[in-house]
Amino acid sequence: MNNIIQLVWLIPVLPLAGFLLNGLFRNHLSKSLTGIIGSGTVLASFVISVLIFLQVKQPGFHGETVTLFDFISVGKLSIPFAFLVDQLSALFLLIITGVGFLIHLYSTSYMHEEEAPHFARYFAYLNLFVFSMLLLVLGANFIILFIGWEGVGLCSYLLIGYWFKNMDYGNAAKKAFIMNRIGDLGFLIAVFLMINTFGSVSFAEVFAHTGGVKAGVVTAITLLLFVGATGKSAQIPLYTWLPDAMAGPTPVSALIHAATMVTAGIYMITRSHVLFSLTPITQNVITVIGLATALLAATIALKQNDIKKVLAYSTVSQLGYMFIGLGVGAYTGAVFHVMTHAFFKALLFLGAGSVIHAMGGEQDMRKMGGLKKWMPITNITFLVGCIAIAGIPPFSGFFSKDEILSAAFGKSPVYYAIGLFTAALTAFYMFRLYATTFQGQYRGVNNTVHGGEDAADTGHGGHDAHGGHGHGLPHESPSAITIPLIVLAILAAVSGFLGIPEAIKPDSHWLANFLAPVVSGTEGANLPAAAGHEISNGTEIGLMVASALLAIVVSLWAGMKFSKKPDLGEATGFGKVLANKWYVDELYGVIILKPLSAIESMLQWIDKYVIDGIVNGIGRLVQYGSRQLRLVQSGQVGGYVLLMVVGILVLFLVELFVKK
Amino acid sequence: MIPVLLIVIPLVTGLIGFLIKSDNGARGWALLSSVLTLIVALAGLGLAKDSPLLHADAQWLPELGSRMTVGLDGLGKVLGLLTAVCFPLIFVATWRDSYKKSWNFYALMLLSQAGLMGVFMAYDALLFYFFWELALIPVYFLCSQWGGERRIAATFKFFVYTFTGSLLMLVGIIWLWSRTPDHSFSLQAFYDVHNHMNGGEQGFIFWLLFLAFAIKMPIWPLHTWQPETYEQSPTATTMVLSAVMVKMGVFGVIRWVAPVVPGGFWQWGDLVSFCCMFGMIYASLLAIKQDDLKRLIAYSSIAHIGLMCLALFAIDKTGWQGVMIQMFNHGINILGMWIVVDLIERQFGTRKISELGGIAQKAPGLTILLVIVALANVALPLTNAFVGEFLLFTGVFTSTATQYNVVYTVISGLSIILGAVYTLNMIQRVFYGNTNTLTAQGTDIKLNEKLALAAIVVLILVIGVYPKPMLQLGQDTVDQVLSRINYKL
Fold it and tell me: Do residue A165 and residue B361 have CB atoms under 8 angstroms apart?
């Protein structure tokens, strides 16, 4: 049974094969075949991931490295193309291939109106994404991780700009790639620093030799890695690409911009927790940035009217929570939240997609309402997602969020207070979203007319290509869409039981026990939440009750408020500031893009008139000089003789005086 | 044997080429010749380092102390292979371009190839100088005869720049020759000559030689000939210039500067490094501003070459390995970009980004190939350029030759971000969006261009995933030359 680990390379290779097949033969494959290749390869990877997981789950299993070949080997630096299979990567494999498969399945129906070659292009990109994401979590060193890291960024770029005729979508795609690249530069410099310090980039080597390294160097490495994480995982100051990324097809938002890619930063920091645990400075920076991002994004989500934008800011905010967890040392809690968030946020996005599909491409919640009448399955599953994210027990979000919050309390009650306030905001905006969409009266206009408008607006069949859909009233989606919703809803509801807090029932935190070999190495003890033990069980239960009650009360209040009287008008006053996202994009424009553009213009002027001007000046001088010199060559023999004599005299004098 | 063939094949076929007074004949003849060269080059790769087939030596100018010594070491193999690979690709990709009196055009191209091969293989300074001029002189004619509207001005500027450089280099070579004990131009004699010179003299000679190479690369602020020349030259010539000829500059530093006047190389490293670093950012920012595709690629190339030069002066093994592999990568990648530009220009009669748009709808095949090449241009992992850039930056960062290594890395690293900006801007504005009246008539890529681009894409990915063979190719030169530079360490 041991050799199943050796087959781990199949997990990324299968989606890669799917990418190549769908990509190369996109003009020849039928849509159903494309769908089968795209989803089938990911399903097969999922099956292998499950087998590997079963192997890894055995007690006493310690990480195993599978080396494929020498990637870069120069002098003392040797970087093999190697995979690391341990508890952490096995868990991520399950999430990526499992949720990934459901989203592929969902896409076969959701993208059905695309023409066959574009349908194949979509699935090729999606498979390439899964391949890259798998490389990211399987890599046994920072370079393989980085290959996946940039690879997912590329796929994100390709999929956000999937409808490439629309320049706005293209801009969103470009913004995502470039903001990610800013982070990637930080990541790369961290890698160079590691090479300089440890002479290696492999996890095993680097983490084993932290002993004699100066604290300042570790702080620099970890801060630079964190810069990379802020790009990929959309934290302040590099978060603004994520809401714009909603230009991509909705299943893409669910897979890449909610469940998997954006959690890469959390994975990377958890993987490198040996380094991060050594430096309180970085940990504090991460906590503060996480808190600020969680709060800022939650306030923006309060006033958004686009169903996907609310979910996008909610994702940014939830990622902030995960970073709080990382900052306070609750690595298990952060990974736990990655998992539950993958379930409930994928569920919410896919549910939103189902709604958008039913509404003929409409994304403005103000034009929805009362959809529960027509879409019972979407309604129920979406509600499950909302309860889970709001943190109402016993659904999954409650457990993972509370693990992070109680760990934060152990560091400082202020952290806890901000986290709790943000949790209340989360419950509020999610139930505002739910009530506005599914409850109350249907406010939709005639879909046929609207679809036409939309098409005229964007220059092609509306958002998500359903603009021309033109059908009367909303309808429930087909089973390829509802089955993933149901599966995810079940997971969102029950997955919290994988991490029952110590305070409630000792030693039943399955996830903590499972991850213990990876993340508790530095803590030296088998503890559920690394920092959670600093507070007593009684306090912890008290905190949990408080946050559960708060979540329930706020959810009910928001749900009832917006069922009766949805928030339909334009925002005013402070609401307008929130609706306009605190004007952060505008601020970046003024302080970065404008000056940069001015510098470019200035350099262009310098290049043309100063540098090239000097060159041309010299050129003209030479031409002028040679015209004058030409006069010397007059044809008069006497003149030549004179010059000759002068020349000889000069040489003679030089010889006489200089060469002693 | 092999080096002689690599020089003689293009030289002789080039001379014969002038006599083939037929467009199609000349075109086919050039392709045939270049394919033959490629086969010989590939055969040479498999040979061991000390194989007698890789070296040749004959009497040339005994009274001057110059011999016709040619040979293929790791550096020569990398660049010989690049030259051999690029020419057939260029001829295939530009198959549909037509030239007046095309036999002269193709003959000059082949002569230039002979010169390039000679440059990369000469083990004698005078011979090197001879080939250097042989490679350049055809380019003056190619540019001035078959170039764009402002070709005369552009050629003049190109000529003045390179000729100035060449002259200074010649002075440097003669100076060095005069300092050799037995008045010899041989590489070995040049390697030993620095033992007879003090630091100041070495520094002076460093500049005489380095300026020619810096102009060729080009290094800021000696770069202004490049965008102009690239813009005005016929695309096939631009391809040779940018894919292969700029490597003469990098090559020159590795073979004729660093090991010959190591004192000067150490002494002036920081000044040159600063110019490289500054130039990378400067060129990247200017690339964002360009509307002409050729100028955009020209500035992008200045940034990329700047990084190679920066790594050279870092005097670090990892970085130098990066230079080796990146010289090859940069060559084929930029060739891929030019193929796309040529195709666009031939189809739509313009290279202005602002006049294009929406080509992806009309030419999906072209777009996919271009996107892969463009991703290599921004050094995405699993493309060849990532391996190169990673090693280059690692070399600069871990350098012990300078105390400013961190500054150089961080500032030049910004070009990673800026590179993404101008490359993605270009893709978006040329290929995405909606078609306009001009691009609505577009058609997809033709078979010949597809073949050339597909070959490049395959190379990009193969080297990107498995760079080991390519890295091993140049290794012996890196070790040898570095040990010569580090003589006092």
Answer: yes
Cβ A496 vs Cβ A400: under 8 Å: yes
Torsion on CA atoms A125, A131, A132, A138, rounded to nearest 10:
170
Residues B396 and A238: their CA atoms lie apart, in Å, by: 27
**Cα A547 to Cα A331, A350, A419, A555, B93, distances in angstroms:** 21, 27, 10, 12, 67
Task: Identify the CA nearest to B366 among candidates B315, B442, B278, B253.
Answer: B442
Is the predicted pLDDT of residue A656 greater than 90, yes or no? no
* CA–CA distance, B452 with A216 (Å, rounded to integer): 50
Q: Determine the Cα–Cα distance for residues B22 and B321; give it in Å rounded to an integer.
A: 44
| Residue environment code for A552-574, b if the CB has 16+ CB neighbours within 10 A, otherwise e | bebbeebbeebbeebbeeebeee
Type and span of the H or E element at B66: strand B66-71
Interface contacts (A, B; CB < 8 Å): 123
Task: Please report, as a single letter, which amino acid is at residue A296.
Answer: L
Establish if B395 belongs to a structural domain. yes
Shortest distance, CA A239 to any CA of chain B (angstroms): 17
Domain count, chain B: 1
For residue B276, tell me if it sits in a domain: yes
For residues B393 and B307, give the distance between their C-alpha atoms in angstroms, rounded to a whole number: 8
Q: What is the pTM for the complete model shown?
A: 0.92
Q: What is the DSSP letter of B300?
A: H
Average pLDDT of chain B to the nearest whole number: 91
A100 or A165, which is more confident?
A100
* Residue B347, domain extent: 268-489
Q: List the single residue in A170, A195, A603 with the smallest CB-CB distance to B428.
A: A170
Mean pLDDT of B9-20: 92
Burial B39-49 (b: 16+ CB within 10 A, else e): ebbeebeeeee
| C-alpha distances out from residue B414 to A2, A187, A333, A371, B282, Å | 46, 13, 35, 49, 11
CA closest to B410 among chain A residues: A189
Q: Is residue B132 part of a domain?
A: no
Q: Is the dihedral of CA A465, A372, A106, A233 positive or negative?
A: positive
Residue in chain A closest to B317 (alpha carbons) equals A75
Neighboring chain A residues of B430 at a CB cutoff of 8 Å: none
Q: Which pLDDT belongs to residue A153?
A: 94
Q: Is the pLDDT of residue A168 over 60?
A: yes
How would DSSP label each residue in A230-255?
HHHTT-TTS-THHHHGGGS-HHHHHI
Does residue A34 carry a pLDDT above 60?
yes
**In chain B, which residue's Cα lies nearest the Cα of A70?**
B468
| Percent over 90 (pLDDT), chain A | 61
Task: Report the length, in residues, of chain B.
Answer: 489
CB burial of B200-235 (b: ≥16 within 10 Å; e: otherwise) equals ebbbebbebbbbbbbbbbbbbbbbbbbbbbbbbbbb
| Mutation to test the A interface, candidates B432, B434, B462, most A Cβ within 10 Å | B432
Please enumerate in sequence order all residues whose Cβ is within 8 A of that of B48, keeping only pairs 6 or more positions apart, or say none: none
Cα–Cα distance measured from residue B155 to residue B150, given in angstroms and rounded to the nearest whole number: 9
Lowest mean pLDDT among A563-577, A587-601, B417-431: A563-577
Q: In the structure encoding, which two tokens stand for residue A94, read together?
A: 């399950």
Whether B321 maps to a domain, the answer reads: yes
A425/A62 Cα distance (integer angstroms): 41
In the block, tokens 């001879």 appear at: B130
Query: In a 10 Å sphere around its CB, with 0-12 CB exposed, 13-18 middle and 19+ buried, how is residue B141 labelled?
Result: middle
Tell me, yes or no, if A67 comes closer than 8 A to chain B by beta carbon. no
Q: How confident is the model at residue B207 (pLDDT cuts 50, 70, 90)?
A: very high
The answer to whether residues A361 and A304 touch, using CB atoms and an 8 Å cutoff, is no
DSSP state of A611: I
Cβ contacts of B383 within 8 Å, gap of 6 or more: B372, B375, B376, B460, B461, B464
